[in-house]
């Protein structure tokens, strides 16, 4: 028999086993993604004072990673945005953020990057670029990106990087996106 104390203890150990990574489709997804960006870029990293929104948000596509419960999206735990630049065929990714409690699920950032490039590829992207914080360069290199130059963004060291589109099949269905499973850690 399960008592109420057992339920409380179970809640402390709960971790989602499945994540849905897709283009944001509902208002709550957009709201939670923007709140996550504020938490990461304003509060945690102190890059922006109050809000990280800018003119790009007016035309960018927002992608989200959501933890699922019983197969249903429950909480936005990661996000990235993509947008077309003024140069024909050129797309950019930016504002990649994963909730600190979910960073141990190292594949979430990689899956967001994969969807970002794959989605842009389906929309006519010939060149996909990003300004990447230096600590994230190794991850991007593992995912088929090359560094073009070292630069500074908001006074912090970054690398301008370009994705190898050959690594990324076009994703024509952004709302279905990708489903990924939690990492299993041996006890």
TrEMBL record:
It comes from Variovorax paradoxus. GO terms for molecular function: acyltransferase activity, transferring groups other than amino-acyl groups. Residues 19-166 form the N-acetyltransferase domain. Gene3D superfamilies: 3.40.630.30. InterPro entries: Acyl_CoA_acyltransferase, GNAT_dom, MSMEG_0567_GNAT. Pfam families: Acetyltransf_1 (PF00583). NCBIfam families: MSMEG_0567_GNAT. CDD domains: NAT_SF. PROSITE patterns: GNAT. This is N-acetyltransferase domain-containing protein.
